[in-house]
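Re: [help] complex structure
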Amino acid sequence: MRYLLMICLDESAYAALSPEAAAASMAEYGEFSEKMGARNVLQGGERLRPTADATTVKVRDGEVITSDGPFAETKEQIGGYFVVDCKDLDEAIEVASKIPGARIGSIEVRPIWEM
Amino acid sequence: MTAVEAAVAVAFREEWGRVVATLIRVTGDWDLAEECAQEAFALALERWPRDGIPRVPGAWLTTTARNRAVDRLRRASTGAAKLQEVAVLSPPSEPGISDDSGVEDDRLRLIFTCCHPALSTEARIALTLRTLAGLTTAEIACAFLVPEPTMAQRLVRAKHKIRNAGIPYRVPPAHVLPERTSSVLGVLYLLFNEGYAASAGAELVRDGLCVEAIDLARTLASLMPDEPEVAGLLALMVLQHSRRDARVDDAGNLVLLEQQDRAQWDADAIREGVGLLEAALRRGEPGPYQVQAAIAACHATAADARDTDWVEIAGLYGELARMVPSPVVELNRAVAVAMADGPEAGLRLVDALDASGALATYYLLPATRADLLRRLDRHDEAAIAYRAALDLAPADTERRYLARRLAESTTGP
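Output below.
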């Protein structure tokens, strides 16, 4: 089964990390990706720019309405994601628990609706 | 009830969970499994009077339910691949002899799946009662005081989540087993407590839920004989339940432990509970349920209230507080300390808890304070605390007890 693992954390806290801490975090993500790649569960994943760079788009009565910022103001934002192919939810939970961001934020595990 | 009806009723109690659990493994379809199990029991009522009660009723029921599943899948055109799988697993041997030779009991798979931490607590309880204990949706709704459609919806959503989120149907592997086992034990104890102290409504002991919880723990203990905490939970529930008849008087009023008529305690249950606990403790792996059972055993084996070993109980609460720190445990420790070292010592602990604000909405905090103040003859302060407790108390029985105490404090000596 495929799952989307969304890394939700307080991006302002993340932005406030010292350069050393940020570099260490990047290295941890590199290690995670390598391990999960070798295990053949990782299908993709990206880091996202902060919500300050987000744009929300909707179409109403045929008109495209564009606004600055994320759709919802929440304390935690999606800072990145991975797409994984796992045996079952237990394996997805195990993989999610190894994402470095799980220790400061939380990971939302969503099964992908296969069409 | 005829002999056959009685045999079917016994088989239902003993075999329902096993039949459903096996059918879920074989078909992968929770609804189909339940429906076919139901049909198998209905068929037993029809066939057993004519053919006689089978030597192994559980095997007859499982085989019959499986055959119904094969029939149904045969009729459904989309079930072709599934059908092949079920047919392979369903040898055409005569009912009553074939049995499942799975390494683990399917009920263990079922209970771990029902209590998976990815499901909400309400969903875990409802699923466990429906699929393992065989309660109807209406019965579960009634026990939890929610409308039947709400409970039906809860069950449907839980089953959808199991399928859509890929919750595996299996006993978890060793590295997550302790954590998952404690989730299962937590569900069973919640279920028991829901029955023991109804969170709303007039009936303090909803005995049915307690009995279901004990039955499920008994099954779990037989399936996991090497887990002393499972036996510890079973012992705890059996010991608490031994007091059910003495806990409420004829008028439905709550009777405190120290005033209960100990002749009404169930001596067989106490013997069983103490025996279970001693066997568990001998394994040398103590845990929170074993400690709580040890506390219950102290009460259960005291000849009368004065004879209670409060020093031992206060020590056990101290141990429990180290294992699972919580304000509720601390409150109970305060009560034990008050009994062992006097109400003033207890009141100091209760006041510290009160100041921490951790139990601001829990009626037993002001109720305990009130009780200690009353024992110290500080009646005006006791009355204020009883009123605070009354404002927070959930069930009618407990409210009546507090109102009585309040009346005593305001008109008392």
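The radius of gyration of chain A is 16 Å.
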